Amino acid sequence: MKIFSALYDRVMTWSEHRHAVRYLSGMSFIESIFWPIPVDVMLAPMALSRPNKALRFAMLATIFSVLGAALGYALGQFFYEPLVEPLIKSVGYQHKMDVAFEWFEKWGVLVIFVASFTPVPYKVFTLTAGILNMAFIPFLLISLVGRGMRFYLVAGLMMWGGEKMEAQLRKYVEILGWLVVALAVVAYLLLR
What we know:
Blueprint lengths: L3 H12 L4 H12 L8 H10 L4 H37 L3 H14 L2 H8 L4 H10 L4 H56 L1
């Protein structure tokens, strides 16, 4: 069943859309608050299709992601009990919030860097940082460094790989897609 090839082609088409930069910026902002799809899904094909603008795309993704993180922090700090907590419980994310609290207790501010750079759901930690009243300026600076490193790495790899990487991605997109699905299922089973 070939579904990832069609999705890949569609994302590549979107990455060349005249409003792609706006979509990337908006997606970066909301991904830090609630959006489940990682920014890399939009950033990578945009950087591949326009390598001369890849670093600009990484900069926009970083800035808007950190702005979204600031809003996530504020939601956690000021609206957790009346607004956010009931929503989290209704969508079954309370376990993830409990894990975030544990990680903060264990590793402190380092957890913001880990969440901002890795595939760990960053949005959970932006809310948790606000709930726990983490110092705001260090939160922003760590987020800026972690998100910047991640997005510039993605853009840099796409610039470096160029057309050859795009051809290889296209060739193996089905295998990679199913591998990601399998990893997501394993991660879900391990973390539930």
